[in-house]
Design goal:
The protein folds into 3 domains: 1-101 and 247-315, FAD/NAD(P)-binding domain; 103-244, FAD/NAD(P)-binding domain (3-Layer(bba) Sandwich), CATH 3.50.50.60; 317-394, no CATH class. It is 31% helix and 24% strand. It has helices spanning 11-19, 42-48, 111-118, 125-137, 157-171, 193-205, 294-308, 348-366, 370-379, 382-393, and strands spanning 2-7, 25-31, 35-37, 55-57, 67-70, 73-77, 82-85, 89-91, 94-97, 102-103, 141-147, 178-183, 208-211, 216-220, 225-228, 233-235, 238-242, 245-246, 251-252, 279-281, 319-324, 330-335. It has a 5-stranded parallel beta sheet, with helices on one face. The radius of gyration is 21 Å and the shape is globular.
């Protein structure tokens, strides 16, 4: 029986483990935590004060026949099919790495101090609650949301945070007392131009000042100033800063398989780690030219499960990111390798779909609602939506 070793019990790792036939494969799942978190809900903890329980024990999310080990991986030797943890040594026939991204405020001077005081909505329940406490205590001044580097989990999330903050301030009578500033390293508020045609007018309409080409260099907590590499600076009273993302701090015997930010170099169609046919990197931990999001990890996991099972399967770069536009409306960012992002107008139903995902997510990990996603992904293929959009513009 072939040994399949999966490192990381995030969405991709769990979906992959539960997609494999345990009568055919010896499946072991390793994670340094005992809980799995529904990370998209950090957004609502930070900006709405949600107290929803968004975690489950990992061993409750895997089907019978899968071995779960609560260990932290320290070293991977791809040539010798060997993995070391803080507790044991492991071998494998197939290795899948799904270690996600790790927000790293230490790479920007002053950001660790800000993160320790204000938190963020990209890392943990603790940090999301910390940010909410700062937001609910805010009464007036300049509220700044900065994406500290081009790479972050969930590309819509910076704009989502800004729009939800504006909604909160507006509904609580604080909008007129606040200057709202959104700063991004990109040339536009949303990186993909087709979607930006929807996003930018909404942000301007809601009175949000936009600063583009803002590559954050440092923050001065004492004087409350955020500085950019371009020489610009922003004064703040409430700083909401999305830290830079980095790959997991694992020692790879073959150092050439990771890039400067520790993301794993992988084939964009098969997720095979470059140079290896028996090792894969799925989800946020790889360097593929697509979004770091849960849906992407889901789809990549399904492709890798097929490949391990001997099927001819390829990932087409599909993204399908839910996007909360505040005030009860939402949309999806949809594209693939061959089609640009579709300008998909926000509606109340799309917002309902995003919120409902928190309920069905746990079923998704076990594969119970695969047929629903198959129908949805087929209905929302980028080429179909582009034709619909073009017809509506005619």
């Amino acid at each position: 029986m072939k040994k399949v070793l999966i490192i990381g019990a995030g969405g991709g790792g769990l979906i992959l483990a539960n997609s494999l036939d345990t009568d055919k494969y010896d499946v072991t799942l390793i994670d340094r935590d005992i809980y799995h978190y529904y990370q998209p809900w950090f957004l609502y903890m930070a900006f709405n004060g949600s107290k929803r329980k968004i975690w489950r024990k990992i061993d409750s999310l895997i089907k019978p026949g899968i071995t779960f080990k609560n260990e932290e991986v320290t070293e991977i030797d791809l040539d010798n099919r060997a993995v070391k943890t803080n507790k044991d040594n492991h071998t494998y026939d197939y290795l899948i790495i799904g270690t996600g991204t790790n927000p790293d405020p230490s790479v920007i001077p002053g950001l660790e101090e800000i993160n320790n005081e204000y938190g963020n909505y990209h890392s943990s329940v603790e940090n999301a609650n910390k940010l909410w406490n700062k937001i609910k205590d805010f009464k007036s001044g300049t509220a700044v949301l900065v994406q500290a580097s081009p790479t972050c989990k969930c590309p819509p999330s910076p704009v989502e945070g800004m729009l939800l903050l504006e909604e909160y301030l507006n509904k609580n009578g604080l909008k007129e007392k606040t200057k709202l500033v959104f700063a991004t390293p990109y040339p536009r508020p949303y990186p993909a131009e087709p979607m930006n045609r929807i996003v930018e007018p909404i942000m301007k309409e809601r009175g949000i000042d936009l600063i583009t080409f803002f590559n954050m260099e440092s923050v001065d907590p004492k004087n409350k100033v955020i500085n950019s590499m371009e020489g610009d600076s922003i004064n703040y009273d409430l700083p909401i800063i999305i830290p830079p993302c980095r790959g997991a701090k694992i020692n790879y015997k073959q150092e050439n398989v990771i890039d400067d930010d520790r993301f794993i170099k992988a084939d964009k169609y098969t997720m095979k780690i470059l140079g290896y046919d028996d090792a894969f990197a799925i989800g946020d931990c790889n360097n593929l030219p697509t979004s770091k999001s849960g849906v992407t990890a889901h789809l990549q996991a399904k492709v890798v499960a097929d490949i391990i099972d001997g099927k001819d399967s390829k990932f087409d770069g599909r993204i399908n990111c839910p996007f909360d536009m505040a005030y009860g409306k939402g949309t999806f960012v949809i594209a693939d390798y061959n089609h640009p992002v579709v300008p998909y107008p926000p509606t109340e139903f799309k917002h309902f779909m995003k919120i409902s995902m928190a309920d069905i997510y746990w079923w998704t990990l076990r594969g119970y609602v695969d047929f629903v996603f198959d129908i949805f992904f087929e209905y929302t293929k980028p080429e179909k939506l582009i034709k619909m959009y073009q017809a509506s513009e005619a």
